[in-house]
Structure formats: structure tokens, C-alpha cells
Design goal:
The protein is an alpha+beta fold. The protein has a domain of 102 residues. Helix 3 crosses helix 4. The termini are far apart. About 8% of the residues have low confidence.
């Protein structure tokens, strides 16, 4: 019976991702050489930071939905803990998390990361741990989902 419940929550989480159209956007850019390109790089960084801040402000109203999705991850057996002690958020993922595609995993981590950075701009990265081993398996931040690196 519990296994059926976990499967239900897993399907429910995938449905939520699709319904709310949560997408994982990665910030990126190219590194240029030379003094003038260094100036362009700083300008691009400033624009990227401004766009990032604007997106946080524009999506602040989604905090309740983000919290619901994170609660669903806990209830559905995708994660056992999602916390932010001392401005260093982490999540412990469980076996069903590995059944998701990388895009689905990234979307869920994006939800959690935006939940934390909306409340605390000092948050840089969400650290992802495996529940069974306790080992760090990846991170999610401005560069997107980095697993197994």
C-alpha cells in the first residue's frame, strides 16, 4: 500500500512540474580575452545579475506553490529532508528521485533553489545529498543542476 502511495506521489510531482511549467534556466556566457572583452564580460555579468534579481522579484508570488511542491517531494518519497540552516540549503534525495529524468530532477531542484533564494539572497547553491549513503551527489545553482561532478 505504501509503495502505491509513493508511486502516486511520484506521478503527482511529475504532473505538477508539467502543469506549472517550471523550467530550469541556466545562466551562462562565454569568457572572452583582452581588456575590452573583460569590460564586456563585467557588463554581461551585471546584466545577468539584474535579470536574475528581476526574475526573483517577478516570481515571489509563487512561494506558496514552491512550498507545496517541496512538501509533495517529502510526502511522495522523493526527498527525506529539505532544510536551510545558516543560509546553506540542502536536500536529501531518496531512491525514487533517481527514476526521474535529468530535466525533471533539475526542475524540482530549481523549485527548491528559487524557494530559498527568494527568502535569502545570500544563498548561492542548493547541495544535494543521497539519503542512503549520506554523500553529496550534486548541487543546483545559477549554473543549473550539476550531478556526479
Amino acid at each position: 500500500m505504501k509503495n502505491n502511495r509513493n508511486i502516486f506521489w511520484l506521478i503527482f510531482m511529475i504532473f505538477i512540474i508539467g502543469v506549472y511549467g517550471i523550467s530550469c534556466k541556466q545562466d551562462g556566457g562565454t569568457q572572452k580575452e583582452g581588456e575590452s572583452s573583460n569590460m564586456e564580460s563585467k557588463n554581461t555579468e551585471a546584466k545577468a545579475q539584474a535579470a536574475h534579481e528581476k526574475r526573483i522579484e517577478d516570481t515571489k508570488h509563487l512561494q506558496e506553490k514552491r512550498k507545496e511542491i517541496m512538501d509533495g517531494m517529502l510526502e511522495g518519497g522523493l526527498a527525506s529532508r529539505i532544510e536551510n540552516p545558516r543560509g546553506e540549503p540542502f536536500i536529501y534525495v531518496m531512491q525514487p528521485f533517481y527514476l526521474l529524468t535529468l530535466d525533471e530532477q533539475a526542475s524540482l531542484m530549481n523549485v527548491a533553489w528559487y524557494y530559498f533564494i527568494t527568502e535569502d539572497r545570500g544563498v548561492d547553491v542548493l547541495t544535494i545529498f543521497d539519503e542512503d549513503t549520506g554523500n553529496e551527489i550534486g548541487t543546483f545553482g545559477r549554473k543549473g543542476l550539476l550531478i556526479g561532478e
